[in-house]
Amino acid sequence: MNTFAALRSALRSLAANTLRSILTMLGIIIGVAAVITMVAVGQGATNRVQEQMKGLGSNIMLVLPGGVSQAGVRLGAQTRQRLTEEDATAIALEIPEVQVAAPTSRTSGQLVFGNTNWGSSIIGVNNDYLEARDWPLASGRVFDAAELSGSAKVAWIGATVARELFGDQDPVDQVIRVRNIPITVIGVLAPKGQNSMGQDQDDVVMIPLGTLRNRIWGGDATSRLKRVGAISVKVREGQDMKVVEASVKDLLRQRFKVQEGADDPFVVRNLTEILQAQEESSHVMTLLLAAVAGISLVIGGIGIMNIMLVSVTERTREIGLRMAVGARGRDILAQFLIEAVTLSVLGGAIGVALGALATWGVGHFAGWQVSLSAGAVLLAVGFSGVVGVFFGYYPARRASKLLPIQALRYE
Q1: What is the pLDDT of residue 95?
Q2: Which end of the chain has fewer CB atoms within 10 angstroms, the N or the C?
Q3: pTM across the whole model
């Protein structure tokens, strides 16, 4: 008996017991569909974290003002405004591992262009901020030195602001009103998408720090001291983020003259490390879900073995007749093994279709980011075939070891 004849005989045998074959395949179908869906969801989560890391920029840490205490009550981070532009300059100049340190301050307000208005975030920055965040301009130019030092009324706008205010028009060289201050758009930022908190990073207007302090806020003691709300620190490639973080803390403690054992008047957050931890968590969760789905495949394989043992018992006389007319033990082994593998692979194919449908449903209705890869499909189908061979071998071997006389006399 050649392989083609054995396959044809296996299909006829499975078709003769259609309902039993379907029920036998059910475990494999569910297992494969679960593997594909879980891996797609897990990979989608990992891809989302990687996109957030790209949107954030590489090797980034954020220096924020610390908290103050009143009557023994700690009010939390960013309640003590002590960071200045000079602190950012010191970090960039005195720590060789730092590529750039960009001071920023943030507020919000209404933007107006013609008859259109839009509420957005307003950030005071300098040109270093684009390098720190790996955020290029899609069009336009950067601030020049005179604009930065003279509190010029110029701005970059994000892709969302450009769409909402200008539609299909070119925003560059147009004048918008930011809190009723006329400001000229000199650049449009490249799209960034959402951050890890789900906030639209493109819904932003960036103006020089001096413009924010002196024109938007009106100028006060804080402006004269050049206070800032945060410092974005970009570390050079290949440098140890932990070492640089410690260096930044030591430098700022010296500048603020912090006594030994006292609380730091600032907070340093390693954002890349936070996102990497999220990615590792997503990876571990994917492995756990895939392991659960793999258990479903094993259970399905046990079901195949049970049904194949029943099939061997039911067809004992048929086995004896085949052997009597010249079939060898390896022919019987191949026939039953092909039946088991056919059951498993056919169940795997149906499971792939069901898993792809479930993946689409999760992405469409739940709104999750999913990623269905060919590798996951091949892994699931290949594993289902291995399950068929592994759990089908014992029943097939048992059938091949039957003696023809005893098999023909079996009732």
Answers
A1: 94
A2: C
A3: 0.60
